[in-house]
Amino acid sequence: MGFYSDRIVPRLVDISCGMKFTEPTRRRVCAGLHGRVVEIGFGSGLNVPFYPAAVDSVSAVDPADLGWKLARKRLAASTTPVERSGLDGQSLPFPDNSFDTALSTWTMCTIPDADAALREVRRVLKPGGTLHFVEHGLAPDANVQRWQRRLEPIQKAVAGGCHLTRDIPTLVTNAGFDVQDLDRFYETSAPKIVGAYSLGVAASPPVRA
């Protein structure tokens, strides 16, 4: 990682994704997490205050050392055990069927190979386990999509590879998940090009008899 990606982007993400208006959305997406949880794109631990009491432990996956340092105060204030357990969401260092639930918040826009990351999440989830996600991505309106495509190269350059036009529900479905609950909406406190959200719960297929 270069200096900008290593030292600047984690701070920018901590500030921009840590704004007050994101808290109700984080609370929504974390609802229902339980047991052993794997969180990809842990960042600076902005979800830590919203883990439900039913969460036994969290395995945090993120490449940014600075993000982990920025998470210290949030981790110290939490009663949920959190362990930094991996660097790359595209290659998770866990056995199959290891986790009850998984969490991804504003992560799939930046992972270079989101398809691979979602397949890995599905692999490490127990059959019937659920992925809880909120992501920004391709807007439902053509005029917003046009601006997303125009501005995506700039967004990728300044925001650590963040894409504006990934179709999140399609990515989740194509990875073999069953999307059980999905809310697509514009976050009113953000510009539409970055505020087209998909928030949902998707299940890993159960074992067939």
From TrEMBL:
**Biological processes, Gene Ontology terms:** methylation
Q: Which organism is it from?
A: Rhodococcus opacus
Q: What is this protein called?
A: Class I SAM-dependent methyltransferase
Report the residue ranges that make up the Methyltransferase type domain in this protein: 38-132
**InterPro entries in the record, alphabetically?**
Methyltransf_11, SAM-dependent_MTases_sf, Thiol_S-MT
Pfam families from the entry? Methyltransf_11
Q: Which GO terms describe its molecular function?
A: S-adenosylmethionine-dependent methyltransferase activity
Q: Which domain of life is it from?
A: Bacteria
Keywords, comma-separated and alphabetical: Methyltransferase, Transferase
- Keyword Transferase listed? The answer is yes
